[in-house]
Amino acid sequence: MATPTTDVDRWHMRAAIGLASRGLGSVAPNPAVGCVIVRDGRVVGRGFTQPGGRPHAETGALGEAGDLARGATAYVSLEPCSHHGKTPPCADALITAGVTRVVVAVTDPDPRVSGQGIARLRAAGIEVTEKVREAEATTVNEGFFRRIADGRPMVTLKLATSLDGMIGAIGGDSRWITGEEARRAGHLLRARHDAVLTGIGTVLADDPMLDCRIEGLGRMNPIRVVADSSLRTPLDSRLVRTARDVPLWLVTAAQAAKSHGEGYTAAGAELLTVPTADGGLDMRAVLRALAARGITRVLAESGRAVAGSLLRADLVDRIAWFRAPTVIGGDGMTAVQSLGVVAVAAMPRFVPDGQVGLGQDVLETYRRSTY
Q1: Which of 39-43, 82-86, 110-114 has the lowest mean pLDDT?
Q2: What angle in degrees, to the nearest 10, is found between the helix axes of 57-65 and 7-21?
Q3: What dihedral angle (degrees, nearest 10) is formed by the CA atoms of 351, 356, 360, 361?
Q4: What is the pLDDT of residues 337-368, one digit of tens each?
Q5: Is there a contact between 141 and 303 (Cβ–Cβ < 8 Å)?
C-alpha cells in the first residue's frame, strides 16, 4: 500500500519546487527541476537543473547525498526522465542509488517520458507517490509544458504604465515612468526568461539593450528578439553592435532577409524568417519559430503594437504590470493598441496572481483565466 501524503512530504516538495525555480531562464529547452533527498528525517542531498540542462537535478542531489541516498526518499518536482539524452536516465540513477521512495509533483508531458519514468521506478520496487504540490510545480514549468502542448513558449507581457495605462506622454517621452526599484525588478524578469521580445517600433524609438543589468546576473542575459518584418533595425543600434556579446535574433520576412540581411549576420545577429499577416509578422508563427529553437519562456517587453498583436491572438499567458502613481491623461500613449473589442464579453480576461510594492510603484501580476 502506498504511503499517504503527509505534511512532511508537502514541506520537502515545496523546497524541491523552490530549487527548480532557480533554473528558470538558463535551462531551456529542458525543464527546470528540483530534487531533495531525505533520509531518517534529514536532508542529505539537494540539486536543481544546471545551466544548459545538465547535470539534471537528481544527479546533483544524488552526488551530494552519496551513500546516504540508499534507503532514502527523493522529492522531485518533475517526473524523473527515462530516456537517454545528453545525460543517462534519472530514473535509472535513482534506482542504482538505492532510494526506496520517490515523491513526484507532476508527470513529465514529454512523450519520451510521460509516465515511463514512474513506471520504471515502480518496476524496480520503488514506492512512488504522485501529484504532491502538482499545481505549483506546473506553474514553474509552464513554459516547458506550453512548448510541448502548443508548440510555442509561455509568454509574459510586461507593461510599465501610469495609473491610467499610459506608457508615455503625447510628445513620445517615456523615460522614466516607473522608478529604480521597478526597473530592477524588470531586469530580474529578463533573467528568468529565455528570451525577451520587442518590436521594431520600440527599437527605433528607444534604442534599447534588453539585457540584464543586475550585479551577479550578467550571465543570465536572455536572447534578444526583435520582430522586424522589413529589417529596419539600424545597423548602428546598440542591439546590433552588441550582437556578438549578447545573442540577437531578428525575426523577419523571407524577402527582407534575402535582400538586405547580410549586414546583420555579419554583425553576429541571427535571422529567423516567418510568414507575414496583414502586412506584419504572424505573431503565432514568431513564437513557433522561437519554440523550434528551444525557447520555453518569452518576456514581451515592447510597445503597443506587439502587445496588441499578442493579446488579439490570445498568446499572452501572464502579465507583469508595473504601475507608477502618476496620471498622464487621454492624450498620452496607450500601452496596448486597439484590440477591436466591441462587447465586454469579448475582452481578454486574466486572473490576479499577486501584488508587491516597489518603492512608490506597484507590480501587479496576472495569469490567463484558463490554461
Answers
A1: 82-86
A2: 120
A3: -40
A4: 888 888 888 888 999 999 999 999 999 999 99
A5: no
Q: What is the pLDDT of residues 137-161, one digit of tens each?
A: 999 999 999 999 999 999 999 999 9
Per 3-state DSSP, what percentage of the chain is helix, strand, and coil (rounded to 5)? 35, 25, 45
Compute how many other C-beta atoms are within 10 angstroms of the C-beta atom of residue 50.
Answer: 17
The answer to whether 47 and 64 have CB atoms below 8 angstroms apart is yes
- 58 catalytic per annotation: yes
Pick the more confident residue, 278 or 94.
94
CA distance 268 to 11: 47
| Contacts of residue 313, Cβ cutoff 8 Å, sequence gap at least 6 | 283, 284
Task: State the cell numbers at 297.
Answer: 519562456
Please tell me the predicted confidence (pLDDT) of residue 278. Answer: 75
Strands 42-48 and 34-39: antiparallel
Residue by residue, DSSP assigns 316-371 as --EEEEEE-S----TTSEESS------SGGGS--EEEEEEEEETTEEEEEEEES--
In contact, 338 and 193? CB cutoff 8 Å: no
Cell representation of residue 265: 549576420
Q: Is 369 buried (19+), middle (13-18) or exposed (0-12) by CB count in 10 A? A: exposed
Q: Which residue out of 58, 79, 136, 301 is catalytically annotated? A: 58
Q: What is the β-pairing status of strands 248-252 and 223-227?
A: parallel
Which residue do the cell numbers 552526488 mark? 63
Q: For the chain, count helices (H), then strands (E).
A: 13, 18
